[in-house]
Amino acid sequence: MARKTGSHSEITGPKIRAEAQRLFARHGFAAVSMRQIAAAVGVQAGALYLYTSDKEALLFDLLKSHMDDLIAAWRAEAPEGADALARLERFVRFHIRFNLERAEVVFLSYMELRNLSEENFAKIEGLRKTYETELEEILKAGQAEAVFLIPDTKLATMAIIAMLTGVNTWFREGGRLSRAMVADIYWDMVRKAVGA
User: Fold this and answer.
1) CATH 1.10.3470.10, applies to 1-52
2) Which of the ends of the chain has fewer CB neighbours closer than 10 A, N or C?
């Protein structure tokens, strides 16, 4: 079948990614077929293979893009030369804001990682470790500045990231707490958790 009128790679490619992300988040990676993605985009199933080699490659691309964007956005926002407490507050607020704006892909990053090949899983894990290291360096700096009381920076890193990412599981726009209120409360909890 010929390409549909108005179908262009710069439009179709992002549309495929967006529909795949939506369908994977709603129904689960295993339950979604390439035909379903194609139907949601409005193309023949075979056309998807012009943009991706297979369904797992599509999932990997979504997860890798998210991690690349997360790391780049944090590095662009990280306050240079600030003390550890100010850097930690910026990290907490950044993490909540960035992830709430990308709830579907954050969900996929935790629930569908198991569907990646060993090689692709290792790549995503490597990117996660890169991001976690950014937080751990802040915690180590806080120890060195004697403003944080943390027995183990690695454990504290994992606990803080799990707590912050958990906001995505319960937060609903228009609910009792605004995003700003949630960020304020979580910052207070994290500050107390590190003994600042």
Assistant:
1) no
2) N
